[in-house]
Design a protein that fits this description.
Radius of gyration of chain A: 15 Å
Shape of chain A: globular
Helix content of chain B: 40-55%
CATH topology of chain A: Arc Repressor Mutant, subunit A
Strand content of chain A: 5-15%
Largest sheet of chain A: 3 strands, antiparallel
Number of domains of chain A: 1
Number of strands of chain A: 3
Distance between the termini of chain A: 33 Å
Number of strands of chain B: 21
CATH architecture of chain A: Orthogonal Bundle
Order of helices and strands of chain A: HEHHEEH
Oligomer: heterodimer
Structural class of chain A: alpha+beta
Strand order of the largest sheet of chain A: 1-3-2
Shape of chain B: globular
Number of domains of chain B: 4
Amino acid sequence: MTEEHLELPQGTLDIVILKTIALGPQHGWAIAERIQQISSDVLQVRQGSLYPALHRLQRRGWIKAKWGASDNNRKAKFYELTPSGRKQLEAETNSWRKLTAAVDQVLDMT
Amino acid sequence: MLSDWIYRLRSLFQKKSMEHELDAELQFHFEHQREKYMAQGLSREDATRKALLQFGGVEQIKEECRQARGVALVESMLQDIIYAFRNWRRSPVFASIAILSLALGIGANTAIFSIIDTLLFKNLPVQHPVELEQAPDKTFSYQMYRDIKENNNVFSGVLARYPTPATITNNDLSEREVVEIVSGNYFSVLGVTPPLGRAFTDDDDSVPLAKAVTIISYRYWQTHLSAAPDAIGKTIRINNYPFTIIGIAPPGFFGVEVDGATDAWVPIMMEPKVLPTSDVSGELAINDKNWFWLTIFGRRAAGVTEKQAEAGLNVLYLRELEDLGVPKARLQKETLHLEPAGKGISRLRADLRPSLYILMVVVGLVLLVACANIANLLLARCVSRQKEIAVRLALGAGRARLIRQLLTESVLLGLTGGLLGTALSVWGVGLLLRFLPSSRRPLSLEVGINPRVLGFVIAISFLTGLVFGLVPALQAVRLDLTKSLKDEIAIVIGSRRFELRKGLVIFQVALSLVLLMVAGLFIRGLRKVSSVNLGIDTENVLMATLDPSRNGYSITQAGNFYRQLSERLKEIPGVKDVCASQSALLSGDHNFITLIVPGRPAPPQGRQVLYNEVSGDFFGVTGIQIKSGRNFGPQDTPGTSRFAIINEAAAKYFFGEENPVGKKARFVWPIEIIGIAADSKFDQVTEEKPGILYFSSDQIDEPDSERTIYLKTSDNPTKYIAALKDAVANLDKNVPLYNIKTFEEQKAEALTKERLTATLSTFFGVLALLLAAIGLYGVIAYTVQRRTREIGVRMVMGAGRGSVIWMVMRNALGLSIIGVSVGILLSHWFSGFLTSQLPGLGTTDSLTVIASSIVLLVAATVAAVIPAWSASRVDPMVALRYE
């Protein structure tokens, strides 16, 4: 089962997290779950990478954290995008698209 | 970037709550995960186990989060600093020696740098000093100044000034001060605003003698008017003419000259009341087209470069000269050059620059010796800290992390030393300035800690910490863990590190030798100039200067004043004779004239000759012999033809082998030479034999009214100061008497610069020697400790105490001799630098080399004696059981 899971490199993990919470505030566990679900179980985010990444993104001022109540009414820390995080997400999405398109072209070469 | 650091700092200071939040968050995550597995049908136990397994090391995640928060760097730095302080407390001797030698080294550097900074780098306290320009050595008539001021298109403002000594009288206290005669726009062009009262305006300076107003210096206001706000509107007398104070200059502003501090400013239109000479010519200086007296400063207009300003100024200047009838062919040579004037004018600057640069290099070397010393101590400490470092390495500390910690410690040492050194330097510079005689102390040279000096201290302390800390730190972490942990210190020490320490000692000894030799050179130079034959008898002579014309006396009145004074002084019991001269001997003041000898070609170096107006029996009092012909006498009055006495050097220069006595010559008027005087020094001690022409003040139409009088006394001349003051005060209590001193003091003051350089370089040389001796002591003591066992064995085998002492001493002397040899090589190269800076200094001679080497070897012997003696006291039985 684990063989099919891919670990994300740091930079890529950052945009995936940003994208995930762009739709609305999420707590850590939900972010990991969401990424796994949407990527059809291909991308797996380990706690060991997730939480340091969340702290790093906070330090850069792209996301901020708030304590709130989770779905089953327990206290959880919710992360949401800041305006500068939103800009960063756009910029990174664009460059990611360009990069993958370019890499695709090269790989599709016959 | 800023928010980044705020986050880091918040993480640091709210560490507890952040850790707590992280715990809660991870716990929440874990529980959610477990619930998910249970929902998939696993039992509670299985779900817990699976979730835990997946989670991995909680502590590791936390640590990574901390890293991500960026707190680690700040936090570990703080830890390192606290750790360093704890270490100092554990070894106070090491810490105090290190900090003290650093403080001395950095303090010396800061002191010299702050003087250099004040004299060479500091800008005048004016607005935008970089825009100010001046034409060095060029003077202008008032007409030329007005033309330039009004018709140039390169300056936003041009000011004119003329500094002059004057008598300022306030509440019956008359003193000799410097007054600057300035154009009405002086303060506005400089951008200097009086904190009290107002600045001059053009209106103050438009009609001759209309507005007797003055602005006084902050210093004068504080010392003479008790800083009273109602000083504005009060009257002080300048050269016995009343002036109304309209403003106080800001503190720290002493005019555009750095050396001479101006105490009062007056408008150019008041010049006739401040300058005595123009009374005689009968014409106002402002109307005299041929008197080039003003120096000018311009502020460049926006966007105008120095070259453009120069070109613009030259157009006007050369046209003015042409109008005055200067031939076209000569105009080319008259072109003026502009120089930045933001730092003000200073005669001292050029005079002291070479000595200051040499001293800066000297203190730099002292600091290097200090660095070597501390590096040496640190290396020694590495041995005792070996185990601690080994334990930390074994526990998984990274080498880079350890190096960072050791460097933090040494940089901290550097900064602490720097802090202490700054305090030392402030004190030292104050002391130094007090050594300067008041006549040679630039009043405006207020050395202090400014941002530039502070930057220098921080940079040098930081750098110092890195320099002496890097090698020991790298050495410290390079060790064999297993051996270190097994306590086998003797093996682990490694000969490499010890070689390094020996190398450092050799380096220290070599540098100290260089510094001692530099000191030797300066001392030799001082002795040479001190013992030089002045040609003047300085014994039992009291001298003092006065100038009645600065109290409104006409030339005739001043002449009478001097005659009466001389008669009264001669009546004082114990005063053998009295005379006077226009330029005070050995004061640095001098005047030149051009002498034309009919029938002889112009001498190769031009017709310039020094001259002095004398009265009374000048030659008798000063002991300058009349070699042939006759002395001036009472028969030489204005009615007779004008006579001159020439000294041997000038006679040879102008007349060759001919006997000049009885010959006629000419400068402004025809003269006849009546005698030849022996050669003597004139304005300074260091000059070669100067050619001098003497005139009698009694024969000259406009003799200088500033004269220095000399009292030849039968015993200690200082006893006559009170009588001299009384005699002057009885004639006129408002005529100030200044530069009162004995001729011996005058001679000593003339050598101030030489003596200070010699004293300072000796001090620094001895300091370096002391540091090197400490370094040597450390290494030798360590060797003895390391060889205790061997010494014990030797003693058991029958070696006597003497041979043990010799063994240790041989070791120390060996190192010193290598150091001395390296030092001799180094100083050979260094004396090349010295002579390039101070050509008169001379090069290292064998006597200086031998003397410095002996001093060093003696110091080395003293440093080695204590460890050698303790080696000889080793008890063989204890030594063999050592370890």
